[in-house]
Amino acid sequence: MNRYFIDTSAFLAILDGDDVNSPAAISCFQGLREGDAHLHTTSYVLVETVALVQARLGITALRDFQDHYRPLLQVNWVVEEGHERALAAVLVAGRRRLSLVDCASFDFMRRLGLTCAFTFDRHFADQGFECLPERS
User: Fold this and answer.
1) Residues ≥6 apart with Cβ < 8 Å to 70
2) Angstrom distance (rounded) from CA 28 to CA 51
3) Which of 6, 27, 5, 25 is nearest to 15 (CA)?
4) Hey, is 126 helix, strand or coil?
5) Residues 114, 40 contacting (CB under 8 angstroms)
6) CA 121 to chain centre
7) What number of helices (H) and strands (E) belong to the chain?
8) Is the omega angle on the peptide bond into residue 23 within 30 degrees of 0, that is, cis?
9) Cβ 55 vs Cβ 49: under 8 Å
10) Distance between CA atoms of 85 and 31, rounded to whole angstroms?
11) Per-residue pLDDT of the chain (136 residues; tens, 9 = 90+)
12) Cα separation of 53 and 94, whole Å?
């Protein structure tokens, strides 16, 4: 079974045709779908994605996300223990740009044994995860 984590940055690139990563994101997403990949994410990524899509791209893009992409996802709902682990990781890292959403994602990936993320966020590679699309 091919399992991948999908991050906010990938969703934004797919939905925003003006995003520099859009062509690579669309191609990668199509490849994952054709390969019958299982796409995982967290409720925190959903909240972040909805907020950013609505603010940057508008309601039509948000409806497109909800109608066409959200149903393809297996969502892990972050509960109190996951939130606490993620917050502790943010505090231990002590880095301003490492977000709670990212740390919750890393925690989830490790707990589920996922090794690959569909993302344009370098923090995933910094944490030792393989990232798609591959960068040259």
Assistant:
1) 46
2) 23
3) 25
4) helix
5) yes
6) 9
7) 7, 5
8) no
9) no
10) 33
11) 699 999 999 999 999 999 999 999 999 999 999 998 999 999 999 999 999 999 999 999 999 999 999 999 999 999 999 999 999 999 999 888 899 999 999 999 999 999 999 999 999 999 999 999 987 5
12) 28
- Asked if 64 and 15 touch (Cβ cutoff 8 Å), the reply is yes
Angle at 83 between CA 102 and CA 116, to 5 degrees: 35
Strands in 38-42's sheet, in edge-to-edge order, are 73-76, 38-42, 3-6, 116-118, 130-132
Tell me the domains of the chain and their CATH numbers.
3-131 (3.40.50.1010)
